[in-house]
Amino acid sequence: MNQYDVAIIGSGPGGYVAAIRCAQLGMKTAIIEKYATLGGTCLNVGCIPSKALLDSSHHYEDAIKHFEEHGIDIPGEVKVNLEQMIARKQGVVDQTTKGIEFLMSKNKIDVYHGVGSFKDATHINIAKEDGEETIEAKNIIIATGSKPSSLPFIEIDKERVITSTEALKLKEVPKHLIVIGGGVIGLELGQVYKRLGADVTVVEYMDRIIPGMDGALSKELTKVMKKQKVKFNLSHKVKSVERKSDEVIVKADDKKGKEVTITGDYCLVSVGRKPYTEGLNAEAAGVKLDDRGRVEVNKHLQTNVANIYAIGDVVKGAMLAHKAEEEGTMVAEILAGQKPHIDYNLIPGVVYTWPEVASVGKTEEQLKEEGVEYKSGQFPMRALGRARASMDIDGFVKILADKSTDEVLGVHMIGARCADLIAEGVTAMEFRASAEDISRMSHAHPTFAEAVKEAALAATDDRALHV
Fold first, then answer.
1. Is 423 a known ligand-binding residue?
2. Is residue 445 flagged as an active site residue?
3. How confident is the model at residue 38, as a pLDDT?
4. Which of 51, 53, 305, 358 has a Cα-to-Cα distance from 193 of 20 to 30 A?
5. Which numeric CATH code is attached to 3-148+274-342?
6. CATH architecture of the domain with residue range 161-271
7. Was 313 annotated as part of a binding site?
């Protein structure tokens, strides 16, 4: 029987990063993955493939809508080759997962392909195609991630009523895609197919899209996506989804209780994700799960069984790849006797629509609820020279700062390249910068980052220069 210092169940961003850090710190490490490729949901059917399709569809939209204004004439009709678009996406996925294989080899991490389940607190059974194997580990990290949620009355047939997994490999552009759920995944994939020519209707139970983010971001993204001809049915409670041949009929009650019927040819069910612990046999190790199926952990991500830890989507908190990575690193360093720390308030959130939406820290709604006195500074992207030069004028940057100390409490932005710009907000808040600190830093001109400086100036006695 092979013995290890650490064994990790699951090879998503949390699992494989934990494995690398454990190996770097001198531990003999194994990683167990049920699928043929490493990388988990993120690399195979999540973050990476969806961004590939978002970029491809963005190029197409630019070609048909903006090239002429830029002085680029294309003879003949610009057409979508969906098969090639999906193939390119898969190529990106394959290249990325092979990169993880290389990193495992480079760091001398043993990889087992099969379903890992607890035999007891120090032994893992691995059900492989060619039989079963058992390994022993002093410490075990559960990193089994999450899977798409649904509603109890919806039958996902993976053909017309689909999850994000199937939406990444459709054989045709839908005529009318109905998206149930106005969160990150639904909006991103909805925008992909809207660009490619589908009618898109988003049905959301809450009274706004991206409900977990600052209200101003939700309002602006709704306005922009309506301009892009996406339809929104907010405050609608879906009560049935029925497929008839190549047609999908969604029935929902609006906020007044009136029934609304929406008919399309595809329905993407995007109502969140749930922790994945099926087949883990956690009870054999004595590991406790909470009432939502998550693994219970303390502040060190340690379960009730001292040598077993859990990270990522399978524990409480935001289901984000970069959050899982930080947790994987933290557990590895704790096992090595170090004292790492994660500030969960400073884990950024991003929506990769165009314009992109990004946020870190407290929202305005949270500050009001907590009774914190704050000041707000906001700057519109359209006032930037760079935004006008690239024709990306939608959006703004908003900075929230403590009214008395000027410490930055939240940074919220929507616009071009905000997924990258939010790192400035994270950095500033990690060092407990004030709005004035940011406002006095030189930002290159012309850039989108200037909006961050200007928003900081606006929060500092309303001193924005270019509005």
1. no
2. yes
3. 98
4. 358
5. 3.50.50.60
6. 3-Layer(bba) Sandwich (3.50)
7. yes
